Each structure stands twice: as structure tokens, then as C-alpha cells.
TrEMBL record:
This is Zinc-binding dehydrogenase.
Length: 39
């Protein structure tokens, strides 16, 4: 990971209190990457 060979594509970031919005975005489809919940 330190060498940069592994990359994580993050499509969206949501604070944890917006988990409902994050789930709706996921269910809508078309997300290229991960949806990240921050605490």
C-alpha cells in the first residue's frame, strides 16, 4: 500500500448521521467507487 500499488476509489463521503442519504445513493446505482461513512 505504501508503494501506491493499491488504490481505493472513494466516490462519496458522508458523515455518519447522513447514513440514510448514503444508502439512497448506493441503491440508486451508478456509483463508481466506495461510499465512505465518516465518524
Amino acid at each position: 500500500m505504501d508503494s501506491g500499488e493499491l488504490r481505493l476509489r472513494i466516490a462519496y463521503r458522508y458523515p455518519f448521521h447522513e447514513v440514510g442519504s448514503a444508502h439512497q445513493r448506493f441503491e440508486a446505482g451508478g456509483v463508481l467507487g466506495k461510499i465512505l461513512l465518516t465518524f
